[in-house]
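Example pasted here:
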Amino acid sequence: MRVHEVTSTADLRAFVDLPLRLHPRDLAVPLLAETVEAWWRGRSPHPEPVTLLLARDASGAVVGRTTVHTDARLDERLGARSLLFGATEFADEDTARALLAELERRGSGREQLFGPVSLLPNQTGGVLTSGFSERGFVDSPWNPARVPATYEALGFERWCESDTWVVDVAPSSADGAPAAEEWRSAGLVLERGAPSRVARLVPEVLEVLNRSFAALPYYTTITPREMAAATDGLGFLVDEDLLLLARDAATGALVAFVLVVPDITAFVQRAGGRLGPLRRLQLLATRQRYRREAVLVIQGTDPERQGRGVLTLLSRQLHASLARGGYTRLRSTMIGRDNPGSARQLERFGGRPLHGCTFYRRPLAPVTPPAAGTTTRTGTP
């Protein structure tokens, strides 16, 4: 088994294509090829370099992959200097061992391995621990049942277990939108995010997002560059009835938001994660086909207004909009089991956990300095 860096466009293609060979197309959701290429070319907004690695067997066939990177913000949150890994795939336990050995070699001076994260826990990553028969969806992981057992056999421990969620949209929800008087009584104004205004709204949403998630153990402050990359192309995809904002009636300040997008998972799967300009035009031309199911990407409330029912009002409006728009199912990206407030907003509409998820961490052996009075020799005399 040989593990090496991605150094050519052929290597890059092999990196992108590996999960398409390992997993069923109708279950796994590939990372976008354009995102992976941005990591490799150093064009990613991530503040530190990202290295792509491939594992090849004795015949030269690619059987595994991972990324290696660091992030000082996450080190501070975790309280440990961490070597991060992500976009990790392996054909079997032998491949996983080879990747682990290379991660350990590169982790000299670090305290732990942490991942898989692509590139941070509040972006994409994690490992499924249950619900393997349920397909993944955009911004969520999918892996076969053997994967968590392999990590744990190699000494990794679970960290920050969570769940994705699913809600079957009830037609009766169409009548459950808050009345105008309810918004007035709460001192709020409801606003819908029209596609033409998405770019203007992003900085406001980012400010509330960073404040609302600051207390979560894994959350690292998202920079404007990272937010711009994450929302690239959102304007042509968004359904304005599903991007909902609550503003303070007196000041106009953004108080809370819910961002739900049509579920384009099937399109991404068919494209193998390659959404270049031509594919994007195809998606734009056929986007009405993808307005039966939706994905809750993120929701947040300013900390000063949490616990006052603002998100409940937005959730009622969201489910009314889903029902009126003909949507039948809503999936939600990972919600930590230590964050019951967010899960409650889905439970009240009949939501249930879909996949169990976790991140993994593994201590790295400390570097032992030479004993006093000894000499470390390098090279040859």
